């Protein structure tokens, strides 16, 4: 059965810390892996990854995919309180987009 | 540009009542989706419509029906609501069936008592 597993489920850090969020997957016909940030309402898009080893970067956030080991990581450096959110990983196959349960990140001042 | 708009935002239903969640997108997207989100379980796909005129079951379709009314609109119907359907529902859309990011509506909070 296809599945997407994120770890840790929750994480509490202090401003300035660096965090790494993990996403492992098992899907039959992988097309892409996506990261989303969800605050109070709708998830908002962060990255789409399709190729192994190519880092995507946006400000303090970066992500990379390993298609051999079937996982991706999302790094956030110099965390700020505004980074507090649930981070969702989704994997697209031929049929749909399957989401992990999410990692709840809390950044304390 | 409103993006993906879903209504209502909040609804309380009694067990056995029916209701329809409405969703419309103004981005000329081909594919539309309905997800539900429950604590600790991420987003689970209920139904999707890869293009106008087609609909398919997702991971958790039981108890729901959908209608792709036209390219813009994709509705989700609960024929006989059950407490297990208490959840947050998200409508989403994207340009094509794959290879593009998905855009979400603001969510509909549904409570079935």
Could you tell me the mean pLDDT of chain B? 92
Report the β-strand fraction of chain B as a percent range.
over 45%
Could you list the spans of chain A in which at least 5 consecutive residues all have pLDDT below 50?
Answer: none
Rg of chain B, nearest Å: 13 Å
How would you characterize this protein structure?
The complex is a heterodimer of chains A (109) and B (113). Chain A is mainly beta. In chain A, 0% of the residues lie in helices and 58% in strands. Chain A starts with a strand and ends with a strand. The model of chain A has no long low-confidence stretch (mean pLDDT 93). Chain B starts with a strand and ends with a strand. The mean pLDDT of chain B is 92.
Offer a few descriptive terms.
A: 109 residues; mainly beta; six-stranded mixed beta sheet; 11 strands; globular; B: mainly beta; four-stranded antiparallel beta sheet
Element layout with pairings:
The complex is a heterodimer of chains A (about 110) and B (about 110).
Chain A: E1 3-7, E2 10-14, E3 19-26, E4 32-38, E5 44-49, E6 56-58, E7 61-66, E8 71-76, E9 85-92, E10 97-99, E11 103-108
Chain B: E1 4-7, E2 10-13, E3 19-25, E4 31-37, E5 43-49, E6 56-57, E7 64-68, E8 74-78, E9 87-94, E10 103-104, E11 108-112
Parallel strand pairs in B: 2-11
Antiparallel strand pairs in B: 1-3, 3-8, 4-5, 4-9, 5-6, 7-8, 9-10, 9-11
Give a brief rundown of this model:
The complex is a heterodimer of chains A (109) and B (113). In chain A, 0% of the residues lie in helices and 58% in strands. Chain A has no helices and 11 strands.
């Amino acid at each position: 059965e296809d599945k997407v597993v994120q770890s840790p489920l929750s994480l509490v850090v202090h401003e300035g810390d660096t965090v790494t969020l993990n996403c492992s997957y098992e899907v039959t016909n992988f097309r892409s892996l996506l990261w989303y940030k969800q605050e109070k309402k709708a998830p908002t898009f962060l990255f789409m990854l399709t190729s192994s080893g190519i880092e995507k970067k946006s400000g303090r956030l970066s992500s990379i995919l390993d298609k051999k080991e079937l996982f991706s990581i999302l790094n956030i450096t110099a965390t700020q309180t505004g980074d507090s959110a649930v981070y969702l990983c989704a994997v697209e196959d031929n049929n749909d987009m399957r989401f992990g349960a999410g990692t709840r990140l809390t950044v304390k001042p | 540009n409103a993006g993906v708009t879903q209504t209502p935002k909040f609804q309380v239903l009694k067990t056995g009542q029916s209701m329809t969640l409405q969703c419309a997108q103004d981005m000329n997207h081909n594919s539309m989706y309905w997800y539900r989100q429950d604590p600790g379980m991420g987003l689970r796909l209920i139904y999707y419509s890869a293009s106008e005129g087609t609909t398919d079951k997702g991971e958790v379709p039981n108890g729901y029906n959908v209608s792709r009314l036209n390219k813009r609109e994709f509705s989700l119907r609960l024929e006989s609501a059950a407490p297990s359907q208490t959840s947050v529902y998200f409508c989403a859309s994207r340009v094509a069936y794959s290879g593009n990011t998905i855009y979400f509506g603001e969510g509909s909070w549904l409570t079935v008592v």
